[in-house]
């Protein structure tokens, strides 16, 4: 019979995936498929794997698919043969079997495509498209089949039902207020779980009268705040959440349910739309404080501050599972850029709580529909979700789908995909679309989404389709560009009114009770109090991070001991070079490790790789955890770090690697080093978020080349450089940006030093250019030991990593500290010095070589290792050594419009005597960071070095 079906039906070609789906049904429950298919799959399993026990779930799909292909080919050959084939079934049986298969295909179609006919739009503007696959006639089923009873396959419910009943169930489940996309998920268990949750109750919420009243109360709060602000502060921008009021009961349910499941902390990221509503009605910000911000009366403790709809907030709420800490991340106007910042903050908290599975700390990201589909950082952040270095156990994504972008009037101008959520499919995240005018459906999908995340620890998306009552902001007039849409919106009574009327009709609330709730909320607003009874004010979490040691000002010049005793350094070096006996190193790496042993014994000078590893080892021994990430951080882009060693006989990462820094001392803190995904923006945002949540961990992000940080400029501008001034957010993140002109062209020369110096003000960040391995050792140690948490930007070396003169001794690590200014190292007669050349980085060694070659004795060379905050006292001390110097000259490799010159000249002028001149030696100003031809590079380099020593400037 089955063979006849293959021969006579159109199951091959486009419909072949259906058979595999049927086979999946069989693996889950053999009784869920027609008996003929059941028998066929039984026989096929025995033929394919005769030695297997009857565990249907373990049968591979490969033999099944191969069998389908083989049968198809046999059918093709017989079709071309003139010999008539004897039918294996009579016509009635064959027709019945075909219709049964058609019913199963129809069920499958609704699971895939039912979302296209779901009632998702509160404005009902779009006609539902014709989807042939949702029409029974597409499969040869007719009206006369409606009362015929068929097997329902894996459809949750009765094993057999009439076609009419099956259609009713499918339309109710997949075409109501909820539309689900999940059939693209490869994991069968996840698909079955979703089917049980959505098909079991037929996507119909069932809540108690008491909880329905609670939903109304939350809707009332959401609408009440917006109307109150709109009346009291007419025309002031607040980026209203009107039209999306169901967001507030959604969040209320999410955090209460998460708390019941044991979640202790929730970190929320969102842009400005509805942010004030979330601040007040979800996190419990006191309305009186918000009103002061509207009135400009809020005393500003921060250096600069930020607008009210960018502000973050932290609070505590009571849940059935205990107290939950809520954090709303600070966010600039760059919409989705907060996504990786939240993920990094969550990862740090999970690390602190030893929450390896993500059961205690939950990330929640709220998105706008246009931004979610359009901004690349969304994709980058999604791509981090299941990686080992950045995973947080799954994120709950909530789309506030206003069906409109900033000024866009048509979805065709906003994206190239059918749904704004389609980017989520790249990580096979299920998507639950829901009509925002059906708050009970919104709550239902929120519960399913959270439960999915907590069970499978994967991302999940709730797409709440709503609308935007007002313009982009309260001063905008949307009728200019969307007249028809806003005519419909103008007639919409509001989600709260629709739901209140529904509850009153159903006898859940009394007539007039909804109006009483409105008045009560307004009374609370007039009094400036928050009616949310779950908020716990003045709660002190015992697990909160103590930032107070880092809050006092004036610590830039704090002297701290970063050196270590020689015996300690030798012991750490021994730990770093103690490799397991059977671990086979690559020959080049073996030589590096052997040299490091000699360095630890004082028989070779220390190179950069060894000094850096010693810094990490020393910090680990002091009790500081370390996290380093970058696109080639384990080995090092320039083959210098080798913090992760690879066994040449094994390639599996869980077996074939050895990390010496994880074996420094018993009970040491974690050392994590990650070869990151090929992302700058999301990864740097993640590391910033991590560092803002964990002040006692050294967090380092390394660009593969310094100019790659260009791809993360928004993180640098909006968070790293200005986060403290705007929001009071301290951060000790370290950025290593390889920098130096070695003739590698415009893309791999400059780390764009000038951009970081331009961002420097009010002692916000540190910018250092270490020129020796010892300097790198001490600056990394200083970053954690000094009671100060400011971002540190390091212009790290490339060719200097192996420069014969750029080395250090163990004594320099033991006895020294980071030198903001390194004086002239040669014993020159101060009275004979005619010029002081100031520089930083690699060019120092070129100047040194030229001076030696030309036997110049009247020019002193000073290295400024910390460009910001500028070390005025240290620099003045060096200038005072040369009272006869006629001029001060700044030398740099970069063009004049780049590098440090434009910023440094103002500092140098402050230290120039009236009788001295200030000059410079550098490349001519250029639109490009560097030339692309090596010969031209070498010519320019020689010219600028020679110019630094010419008699006249």
UniProtKB/TrEMBL annotation:
The keyword Oxidoreductase applies. Residues 606-803 form the Transketolase-like pyrimidine-binding domain. InterPro entries: 2-oxogl_dehyd_N, 2oxoglutarate_DH_E1, DH_E1, KGD_C_sf, ODO-1/KGD_C, THDP-binding, Transketolase-like_Pyr-bd. Keywords: Glycolysis, Oxidoreductase, Thiamine pyrophosphate. CDD domains: TPP_E1_OGDC_like (cd02016). GO terms for biological process: glycolytic process; tricarboxylic acid cycle. The keyword Oxidoreductase applies. Gene3D superfamilies: 3.40.50.12470, 3.40.50.970, Multifunctional 2-oxoglutarate metabolism enzyme, C-terminal domain, TPP helical domain. One of its GO terms (molecular function) is oxoglutarate dehydrogenase (succinyl-transferring) activity. It is an enzyme of class 1 (oxidoreductase). Its EC number is 1.2.4.2. It comes from the Bacteria. It catalyses: N(6)-[(R)-lipoyl]-L-lysyl-[protein] + 2-oxoglutarate + H(+) = N(6)-[(R)-S(8)-succinyldihydrolipoyl]-L-lysyl-[protein] + CO2. Its cofactor is thiamine diphosphate. GO terms for cellular component: cytosol; oxoglutarate dehydrogenase complex. E1 component of the 2-oxoglutarate dehydrogenase (OGDH) complex which catalyzes the decarboxylation of 2-oxoglutarate, the first step in the conversion of 2-oxoglutarate to succinyl-CoA and CO(2). NCBIfam families: 2oxo_dh_E1, PRK09404.1, PRK12270.1. Homodimer. Part of the 2-oxoglutarate dehydrogenase (OGDH) complex composed of E1 (2-oxoglutarate dehydrogenase), E2 (dihydrolipoamide succinyltransferase) and E3 (dihydrolipoamide dehydrogenase); the complex contains multiple copies of the three enzymatic components (E1, E2 and E3). Belongs to the alpha-ketoglutarate dehydrogenase family. This is 2-oxoglutarate dehydrogenase E1 component. It comes from Nitrosospira lacus.
């Amino acid at each position: 019979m089955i063979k006849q079906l293959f021969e006579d039906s159109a199951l091959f070609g486009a419909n072949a995936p259906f058979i595999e789906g049927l086979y999946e049904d069989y693996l889950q429950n053999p009784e869920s498929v027609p008996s003929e298919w059941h028998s066929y799959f039984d026989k096929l399993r025995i033929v394919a794997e005769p030695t297997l026990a009857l565990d249907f779930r373990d049968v591979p799909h490969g033999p099944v698919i191969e069998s389908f292909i083989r049968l198809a080919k046999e059918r093709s050959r017989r079709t071309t043969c003139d010999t008539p084939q004897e039918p294996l079934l009579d016509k009635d049986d064959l027709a019945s079997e075909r219709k049964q298969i058609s019913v199963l295909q129809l069920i499958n179609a609704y699971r895939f495509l039912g979302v296209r006919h779901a009632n998702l739009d509160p404005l009902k503007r779009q006609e539902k498209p014709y989807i042939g696959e949702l029409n029974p006639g597409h499969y040869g089923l007719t009206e006369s089949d409606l009362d015929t009873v068929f097997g329902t396959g894996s459809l949750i419910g009765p094993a057999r039902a009439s076609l009419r009943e099956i259609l009713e169930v499918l339309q109710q489940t997949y075409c109501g207020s909820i539309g689900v996309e999940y059939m693209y998920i490869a994991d069968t268990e996840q698909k079955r779980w979703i089917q049980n949750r959505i098909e079991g109750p037929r996507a119909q919420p069932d809540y108690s009268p008491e909880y329905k009243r609670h939903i109304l109360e939350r809707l009332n709060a959401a609408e009440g705040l917006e109307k109150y602000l709109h009346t009291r502060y007419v025309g002031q921008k607040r980026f209203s959440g009107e039209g999306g009021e169901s967001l507030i009961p959604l969040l209320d349910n999410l955090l209460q349910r998460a708390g019941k499941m044991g979640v202790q902390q929730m970190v929320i990221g969102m842009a400005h739309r509805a942010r004030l509503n979330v601040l007040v009605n979800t996190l419990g910000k006191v309305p009186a404080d918000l009103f002061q911000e509207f009135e400009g009366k809020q005393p500003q403790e921060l250096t600069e501050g930020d607008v009210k709809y960018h502000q973050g907030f932290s609070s505590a709420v009571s849940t059935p599972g205990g107290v939950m800490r809520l954090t709303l991340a600070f966010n600039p106007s760059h919409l989705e850029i907060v996504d990786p910042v939240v993920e990094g903050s969550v990862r740090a908290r999970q690390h602190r709580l030893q929450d390896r599975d993500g059961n205690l700390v939950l990330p929640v990201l709220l998105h706008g529909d246009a931004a979610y589909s359009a901004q690349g950082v969304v994709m980058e952040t999604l791509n981090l979700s299941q990686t080992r270095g950045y995973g947080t156990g799954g994120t709950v994504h909530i789309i506030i789908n206003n069906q409109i972008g900033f000024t866009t009037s048509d979805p065709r101008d906003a994206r190239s995909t059918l749904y704004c959520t389609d980017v989520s499919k790249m990580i096979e995240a299920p998507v639950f679309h829901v009509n925002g005018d059906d708050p009970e459906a919104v709550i239902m999908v929120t519960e399913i989404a959270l439960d999915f995340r907590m069970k499978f620890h994967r991302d999940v998306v709730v797409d709440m389709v709503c609308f935007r009552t007002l313009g982009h902001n309260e001063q905008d007039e949307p009728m200019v560009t969307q007249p028809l849409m806003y005519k419909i919106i103008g007639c919409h009574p509001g989600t709260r009114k629709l739901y209140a009327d529904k509850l009153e009709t159903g006898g859940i609330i009394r007539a007039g009770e909804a109006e009483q709730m409105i008045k009560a909320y307004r009374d609370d607003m007039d009094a400036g109090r928050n009616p949310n009874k779950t908020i716990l004010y003045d709660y002190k979490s015992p697990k909160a991070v103590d930032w107070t040691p880092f809050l006092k000002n004036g610590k830039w010049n704090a002297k701290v001991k970063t050196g270590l005793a020689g015996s300690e350094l030798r012991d750490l070096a021994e730990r770093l070079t103690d490799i397991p006996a059977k671990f086979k190193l690559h020959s080049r790496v073996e030589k590096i490790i052997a040299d490091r042993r000699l360095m630890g014994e004082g028989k070779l000078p220390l190179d950069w790789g060894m000094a850096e590893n010693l810094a990490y080892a020393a910090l680990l021994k002091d009790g500081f955890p370390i996290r380093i990430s970058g696109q080639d951080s384990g080995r090092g882009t320039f083959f210098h770090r080798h913090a992760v060693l690879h066994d040449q006989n094994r390639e599996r990462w869980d077996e074939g690697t050895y990390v010496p820094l994880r074996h420094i001392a018993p009970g040491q803190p974690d050392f994590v080093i990650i070869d990151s995904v090929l992302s700058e923006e999301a990864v740097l945002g993640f590391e910033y978020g991590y560092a803002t949540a964990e002040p006692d961990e050294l967090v380092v992000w390394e660009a593969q080349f310094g100019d790659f940080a260009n791809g993360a400029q928004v993180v640098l501008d909006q968070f790293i450089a200005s986060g403290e001034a705007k929001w009071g957010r301290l951060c000790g993140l370290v950025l290593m940006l390889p920098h130096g002109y070695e003739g590698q062209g415009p893309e791999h020369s400059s780390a764009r030093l000038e951009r970081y110096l331009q961002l420097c003000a009010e002692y916000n960040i540190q910018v250092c250019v270490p020129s020796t391995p010892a300097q790198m050792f001490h600056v990394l140690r200083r970053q954690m030991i000094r009671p100060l948490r400011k971002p540190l930007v390091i212009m790290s070396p490339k060719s200097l990593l192996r420069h014969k003169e750029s080395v250090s001794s163990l004594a320099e690590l033991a006895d020294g500290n980071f030198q903001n200014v390194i004086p002239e190292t040669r014993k020159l007669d101060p009275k004979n010095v005619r010029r002081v050349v100031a520089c930083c980085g690699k060019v120092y060694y070129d100047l040194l070589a030229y001076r030696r070659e030309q036997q110049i004795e009247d020019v002193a060379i000073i290295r400024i290792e910390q460009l910001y905050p500028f070390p005025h006292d240290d620099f003045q001390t060096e200038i005072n050594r040369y009272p006869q110097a006629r001029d001060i000259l700044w030398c740099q490799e970069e063009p004049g419009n780049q590098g440090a010159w434009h910023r440094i000249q103002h500092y140098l002028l402050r230290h120039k005597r009236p009788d001295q001149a200030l000059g410079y030696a550098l490349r001519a100003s250029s639109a490009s960071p560097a030339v692309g031809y090596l010969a031209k590079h070498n010519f320019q380099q020689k010219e600028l070095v020679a110019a630094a020593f010419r008699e006249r400037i």
